[in-house]
Amino acid sequence: MIKAYGETLVELGEKYKNLVVLDADLSSSTQTAMFAKKFPERFFNAGIAEQNLMGMAAGLATTDKIVFASSFAMFATGRAWEIIRNLIAYPKLNVKVVATHAGITVGEDGASHQMCEDIAIMRAIPNMVVIAPSDYWHTKNIIRYVAEYKGPVYVRMPRRDTEIIYESEEEAKFELGKGKVLAEGSDLTIIATGEEVPEALRAREILKEKGIEAEVVEMATIKPIDKKVIERANDLIVTVEDHNIIGGLGGAVAEVISELGDKKLLRIGIPDVFGRSGKADELLKYYGLDGEGIAKRVMEFIKS
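The structure assignment produced for this chain is given below.
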């Protein structure tokens, strides 16, 4: 996913001469180094100063620039939140905050770097759009979309590469505020976002072996949320995310369901705890966020 981001920035740099990219001394990790190499005059390294990074991004956006600002999710959103709120979102400036290394799968870096609260704090900001791509091709289409979108956007990506869900760019079509049904099922609906989409599809196959037909919906846009796809979902909805169950995708879906009043909800994610150090796959299994863990939680919920 992160490689797709870097590649697409270079592509967009050719198309938009007013596109600039900023980073906080992590360009080799966020892959914005690709853009820096191609367009050094339009790349700005703010150093390890994320608040300055967002302030610079805001200033550049006032000069009719398309601005992409990147760092790790913990620093981009956690350390610089007040600057994003007051200098970017409040005046509705054209800044795209694209954060990498989000969620528990940052892995061995541990709790201090495992940003599992970013969806919650970013979607609480007025004027802010929140998006989480699910694979390589999906990322490319989303970055292209947000470059053309006028206003502030937060795009969230994990550290690791996820498996390919879509076979082509055409198949990975993105529409803002629209959930996408990836698999049909009449017993329950799994709504997943970001890197948990492949795990949700894996859980579906496990459940199918047990005679349970699960619909799988990819919810790439967490804000604005697709209320219609939630409304037409099965009576049992299961949300899956690499994020705290408070305030993230599960919280967003819960808010919609509370207005509908006729559906049950199971939220699967990080259970309001700080993370632990470990390999990404081990952590997904530990927190029940792999396919097997998701299927197990669903079965337990149905039987309860």
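Interim note for the steering committee: The longest strand covers residues 236-244. Residues 2-156 form a domain with the Rossmann fold fold (CATH 3.40.50.970).
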